[in-house]
Request: fold
Amino acid sequence: MDMPVANPGPGILVEEGSDVPLQGGVFHVSVVTRGRYACFADFHVAWTAVRAFRDPAALGDARLLAWVLLPDRVAWLVQGGEQMPMEKAVSRMKSCSAVQVNKTLFRAGPLWEPGFKARELAPDEDPRAVARRLLVAPLQAGLASDLMDYPFWDCVWL
Reply:
């Protein structure tokens, strides 16, 4: 069952393998772990996932512009590519990270909820402003008092 992620603003819930044409645009994507399992509260597990997200084999020609990993979810700002549309890049990042995290935790089974929530940025919407809003999540969740003290984020503009 697909479960939307709490995310302000309009969005679309996408099932992996759908035929939604999502190439080239910039998307704010949210994904939650199965049952809101807070596996990324463990530093080693979180870095295992981060390495998988940033793997060029997962991204192809898509670009990961900004991301933040919280204990039970991840938010990405992704630009789809010609060969790797956003939906496929997200599916591959989820799959690669699940395989690696499951190995790290000596477990099997789904890591992520099926599907994901995605919102395409409007043509006049500044991706940098969206990235700034995305990156305040650890502060809002009380995980750090300063973003520089939180290790699980990145942004191409910083």
In short: The chain has a mean pLDDT of 88. Residues 44 and 64 are 21 Å apart (CA to CA).
